[in-house]
Amino acid sequence: MKKDILTLIDLTREDFEVLFERATELKKRYKKGIADKPLAGKTLGLIFDKPSTRTRLSFEAAMVQLGGTPIFISAKDTQIARNEPVRDTARVLSRYLDGLAIRTYSQNLLEEFAEFTDIPVINALTDLFHPCQVLSDIMTVIEIKGGYKDIRIAWVGDGNNVAHSWVNAAAVLDLDLVLACPDGYSPRKDVMEKALEKGVGKIVATSNPVEAVKDADVIYTDVWASMGQESEQGKRKRVFEPFQVDQALLKHASEDVIVMHCLPAHRGEEISENVLEGPKSVVWDQAENKLHMHKAILDVLFLH
Prior knowledge:
The chain is an alpha/beta fold and about 300 residues long.
């Protein structure tokens, strides 16, 4: 039976653990120069509606390193752009490919692809969720902190798709997560409610960044205006100014706090230059771990 990764709320704790373990194993083997080729003869289609640097390249590199072949196509170059029904494209691609990674605006479009394919479909970002990003982020937390249990995670900034995926992960993994967002920019109510229904994890929302980072082991931030919100940039910059992750904010966190950002970063906006480039920052480790987590995702979905 095929398995998709559309949103983290659909995964079990065991699913998470399998991916963390496999990603860690593949990373260790890669660092030793061991070339694993379990996906030889397999093909991954990448259909992207939105620009990408890290997600696209890490999926492509992951597929190549595992012995498979990635095939990239911009969504505007498909017949979907000329109003072919998604279900028709999905069923045909199932005959050509072994899996699909899709980066698009609509979560509903992604889910329609998943419904009408018999190959794994991976959410490579939608407006609503970014599950693969948070999987690699938690992998990074495990590496640096030794695990995710009893780790206090503070999200500071916009309640966007990455924040939503953190909420989902907290609901499955029993995380201690506090989200500090300006009024009107909190995570979506339906996302929060679905997570809280699980009755697992401590998920708290506030509009006070200082309160959020108190004793935090991890501080996470992201851009104030996501893709498609460029027209709101000026307004958001004024609203979010008190939510910058800077040295003053870090003073309220744990002494050994780490700072995370999924990139690209706007230095001097959501994060100060000296924090991004400082000793607490682990953003480059995060970026690297996308490669290893994507390898694990492909390996597990294609072969298990």
